Amino acid sequence: MKKYNVESFNLDHTKVEAPFIRLAGTVDGANGDKVHKYDLRFKQPNKTFLKMPVMHTLEHLMAENMRNHYENVIDLSPMGCQTGFYLTVFNDDNSENIAEALEKTLHDVLEATEIPAQNEVQCGFAKSHDLDGAKNTAQEMLDGKDAWHQIFAE
Ligand SMILES: [Zn+2]
Predict the structure, then answer these.
(1) For residue 57, with 0-12 CB atoms within 10 Å meaning exposed, 13-18 middle and 19 or more buried, which class applies?
(2) CATH number of 7-147
(3) What Gene Ontology molecular-function terms does this entry list (predicted)?
(4) Ligand 1 centroid to residue 118 C-alpha, Å
(5) Residue 87's pLDDT is what?
């Protein structure tokens, strides 16, 4: 297969088993810092997916709350294939730390009573949210926690 520039284009999505946390790549900065990209996979590729409002609400809640638990966050963004999120961090290639931060963040989702920045000033599609759906997905992800570090099906 052709080698692509984008790391995940070189991943065989038929071999992975969601849910999982996968270190998808590291970039070395000129001054010694490292930037790591994690694949937080919630749904099994090409079998199931997150509905857009659910993914959008998870994005708002996770992007906001994860920073309360973990100070190395650069960015958290949804995957276009609607099966998970990319988490970009600096100077931490230990996915155990990511798992710990994700677990706390998903508990925040379960306890949320409102969606941060759900308005037309702070969001580009404020109508497209689903808090109940986000909570169901957070619970499902937490239920699969024991398998987060197993990326490929056996
Ligand atoms: Zn938004």
Answers:
(1) buried
(2) 3.30.1360.80
(3) iron ion binding; S-ribosylhomocysteine lyase activity
(4) 7
(5) 98
